[in-house]
Amino acid sequence: MDVNEIKSQFPIFSKKINGKSLVYLDSSNSSQKPISVINRLNNFYKNEFSNIGRSIHSLAVNATNKFEETRVSVKNFINAKFKEEIIFTKNATEAINLVATTFGQQNIKEGDEIIITELEHHSNYVPWHFLRENKKAIIKFAPINNDGDIIIEELQKLVTSKTKIIAVTHLSNVTGTIVPIKEIVEIARKKNIPVLVDGCQSAPHIKIDVLDLDCDFYAFSGHKVYGPTGVGILYAKRKWLEKLPPYIGGGAMISEVKKNKITYAPLPEKYEAGTMPTAEVITFNESIKFMESIGINNLMKHEKEITDYALEKLKKINSVKIIGNPKNKAGVISFTIKGIHPHDIATILDEDGVAIRAGHHCCQIFHEKMNLTATARASIGVYNTKDDIDILCKAIKNCQKIFDLK
Amino acid sequence: MDVNEIKSQFPIFSKKINGKSLVYLDSSNSSQKPISVINRLNNFYKNEFSNIGRSIHSLAVNATNKFEETRVSVKNFINAKFKEEIIFTKNATEAINLVATTFGQQNIKEGDEIIITELEHHSNYVPWHFLRENKKAIIKFAPINNDGDIIIEELQKLVTSKTKIIAVTHLSNVTGTIVPIKEIVEIARKKNIPVLVDGCQSAPHIKIDVLDLDCDFYAFSGHKVYGPTGVGILYAKRKWLEKLPPYIGGGAMISEVKKNKITYAPLPEKYEAGTMPTAEVITFNESIKFMESIGINNLMKHEKEITDYALEKLKKINSVKIIGNPKNKAGVISFTIKGIHPHDIATILDEDGVAIRAGHHCCQIFHEKMNLTATARASIGVYNTKDDIDILCKAIKNCQKIFDLK
Amino acid sequence: MDLKELYQDIILEHGKSPRNLGKCEGYNHDAKGYNPLCGDKVHIYLKLDNKKKVESLTFEGEGCAISLASASIMTELVNGKSFDEAKDIMSSFLNMIKNTSEIKSNHLDDDQKTKLMSLSGVKQFPMRVKCATLSWHTFVSALEGKKKEVNTEQID
Amino acid sequence: MDLKELYQDIILEHGKSPRNLGKCEGYNHDAKGYNPLCGDKVHIYLKLDNKKKVESLTFEGEGCAISLASASIMTELVNGKSFDEAKDIMSSFLNMIKNTSEIKSNHLDDDQKTKLMSLSGVKQFPMRVKCATLSWHTFVSALEGKKKEVNTEQID
Ligand SMILES: Cc1ncc(COP(=O)(O)O)c(C=O)c1O
Ligand SMILES: Cc1ncc(COP(=O)(O)O)c(C=O)c1O
Q: Which domain holds residue B155?
């Protein structure tokens, strides 16, 4: 994999930020977009735009076909069995809410238990919290250790006959922990408990195979996988989508509508009410093609190389502390610098063109557990180079200089 | 207003459909996009892309500011009082579901009544149907007359002490009926009943002033107002947004997250969970600028001229029957041709490059009422010309020739 | 694409005056089909004799010229066929619409094949394929005694 | 943009060793402030005497250098001021950060103005304005005896 060739596919890297070249280390938040994706969107609006499904003129037929092609690509990308198991939402957050709401409506009653973990993003906690509020369900948090690994034995101990669902991230957006989903599914299977996987951070960075994981639900966002904003993806085993009630109601998700009765459309339309993010879904096909053009193994190898290099170099800076040390770690590096608040770090780094994120990264539970209020986070995408890391480290040293710590 | 100049701003009209120039008469479904909108999207991804709100690097600051600028533009566009009253969703359907779900959660119990009308799009019926199913609420349909006008006195009679909300379209997507919202709000005000207005078809075509309408909720979609897909808008009076529970839960809509307690962010973030359709919202500002560059009065005048011309010409074709004859009609013309099914009409018209829609247009209640299973619909946008109407009429005559009716 | 191929005279004629309309007497199988996109509906009535031969086959429905013509032609061609023959004709029809351009079934004579081939114009109009196939899927559903309504959104 | 202006020595020094930390004895007003974006928190403790003069003013908080320095400097400058003087200093500070580049209040001497002006670098860093203003808004909330927590997302 030639990273410079890949980087050159991203127009934004030819721009200057504060007079400096952009060192983008905020891909866990959202990735930059390659020109093929940008062009697809542009051309769709220029030459092909139409709403899908409802009209039968040529533009609509074309758009509908293209839309369904993306569904097939996504199915293949995550190795699902049926294309009807792929539901498009606006983001991963909506996808998780869809499951929590519809599953909860049908299966959660007072006193029922939901297991999540201390690693979860708010988007995989708040939707379950709603069930706690509205249905008097109980949320149990599987604990993590100081390395940022979920303690699987402790998770296992939380399972009772009242456990109705386990929802867990595949890859932490704070520590980069890669969670052993298969072990968790194995525990769940024994008790017939469905498992939802938050794949927001895994989809862009590691090989996804939902059949192999054998999870019931898998949610991710297009914008983190080199795709446009406005598209989320929910994979769910067909049996669930058939059994669960609909989520958003409106046009396109119905079959027959009478004054006293409504029947719903078959899958996947049942869950795709109203005008979809048509252009975005169609464009997302190019993002998958981009991922495939690199090859997930090459991508993983490259990102590991950059991550290892970054860890090594950061560890050499005395006052830098890296948060978590998981067994399997992807390219998400959260850190603190003694004496400098992450917010100040982010501002100072930005002056050098280095974009990182500071804060709790939507993981307050994790930060509370680790006794932190905020961390700085550098996260790696396929376009990052060792040069980027060198610039990051130099910028960190500049923080220390400004704060007179060196 | 120079329609040819305006048309030239839409790249799609330089394309050929089946070798013919595109006559796009499906704007009620979704409008085409002007080059300024397409370019804004393109440039945002190329030069400025970042997620908003969460990061503090320069790209994120810029994106966040631009995002909020759209909110202010939308506020001004519909004459809302506060920018916090503008919530971005994925489409109007989600916006209506947001209200039905959160309002229903707090205010609807068994036996409570919801008034909608026989003109409603499925997106303004199914969300209320969910409350009927889940809360045993009652839906009452305000009847329409044969002209396609809501019979206001009959609506008034439906109001009882159990009426909790009235949800009504501003402009019918089948008949083009412009509904006298102010009269309905007046009825509702007397009994302190909130009113939701489905503004999907009104926002692109008539002047919107939510303060003047004095409605509680107003929902519309960006993609019908010359904007990108993936953006919906909910306006709601601040008191409602403050009082109602959140809808989708996740990142960005929270304030403090603890293991046993979650507090929510202030408005508007409370209702904007997860990564928003960032690029789309930012781009939508250009759509509003496009509308403003024309001027709503010029636009209305032009569309009225084309609509009147179309009605006149269509009425001259013997076998064509126009559905509805409302007091105030916008550029939505549904019709049938004796002896030819709308589906066949749409296919034949498409061969002449004329894009219309055939079916029930997500309004089965209306079609049932009118004893129809399907209609053909030609709907007008700002770019349509009298030539378009001439080509439409010629293509209709071709249908008749093929079906040997002439 | 060619409208003349889609709307051949025989299609228009069957569309205008469909054969075998209504409920056939003594039907012992029936099934409903629905295309939610355009509202096309069909209700198939089938009388199978005790050897599972199609003794009579009729339909009620509303829809476009293509869907009515397809149902009408189907009732003509399948009447009198055995269970297996009927299914063979159906797959050969679907195969013609979706893949090849010929009718391969051995259970139709040349005139019948020509009649069926009048629907082949649909191939060029992908959004109309479901119009042509709805009645056939619904017929098979009746034949096999399935209870669920056929919905075009669930068939490929 | 200039980091040196943002991180002037006096800011760094106050950030490292904030003055008036903790709960002041006998406080009769207090208020909390929170910035959900970065997690900055502040808790203001205020003792007003019976003439509504600020008798003592302290704070607890966690946050970046800017937010700590701003709180620290505020407690120094506002201590001993009357209710109206304190509010005047606060609006003059907000006005400096958002609009003009000078402190117009008559209730500060030149040294005090210079000290407050050390926060002016924030103007060039829009995402950091809330860090600088959180403690001030929270102080006013305490002063006016408001019960609601100040949330930076609700203030402009
Ligand atoms: C009157 C009306 N209401 C609601 C909708 C739903 O809008 P969307 O599909 O953008 O959610 C539409 C458009 O399809 C409409 O015309
Ligand atoms: C682990 C994880 N889960 C969920 C989300 C939410 O994704 P989105 O904001 O795209 O809905 C994110 C990203 O913000 C994430 O990193």
A: 38-292
**Ligand 2 centroid distance, CA of C144 (Å):** 47
Query: In angstroms, what is the span from residue B121 Cα to ligand 1's centroid?
Result: 7
Please tell me if residue C32 touches chain A, with a CB cutoff of 8 Å. no
Residue holding tokens 């908080």? D61
Among residues 80-99 of chain B, which lie with CB inside 8 Å of chain A?
A: 89-94, 96-97
- Reading the block at residue B109, the tokens are 């119990």
SS3 C134: helix
Decide if B362 is catalytic: yes
**DSSP secondary structure string for all residues of B73-137:** HHHHHTT-S-GGGEEEESSHHHHHHHHHHHHHHHH--TT-EEEEETT--GGGTHHHHHHHHHH--
Same domain, A350 and A250: no
Q: For B362-377, what is each residue's pLDDT tens digit?
A: 999 999 999 998 999 9
Q: In this structure, which topology does domain C3-151 adopt according to CATH? A: Sufe protein. Chain: A (3.90.1010)
Same domain, B266 and B388: no
The atom number, within ligand 1, closest to the CA of A250 reads 6
Q: Which residues line ligand 1 (CB under 6 A)?
A: A 251, 274-275; B 28, 91-93, 121, 123-124, 169, 173, 198, 200-201, 221, 362
Give D58's DSSP letter. Answer: E
Check if B254 contacts A (Cβ < 8 Å). Answer: yes
ipTM metric: 0.94
Q: What is the pLDDT of residues A49-92, one digit of tens each?
A: 999 876 788 899 899 999 999 999 999 999 999 999 999 999 99
Q: Is B280 helix (H, G, I), strand (E, B) or coil?
A: helix
Contact (Cβ atoms closer than 8 angstroms) between residue B169 and residue B117: yes
- How sure is the predictor about D153, in pLDDT bands with cuts at 50, 70 and 90? low
Measured over the CA atoms of residue B332, residue B336, residue B341 and residue B346, the dihedral's sign is: negative
Mean pLDDT, range B325-340, rounded to an integer? 97
Average pLDDT of the residues in B232-237: 98
Q: Which of A200, A362, A363, A399 is catalytic?
A: A362
Contact of A316 with chain B, judged by CB distance below 8 Å, is answered with no
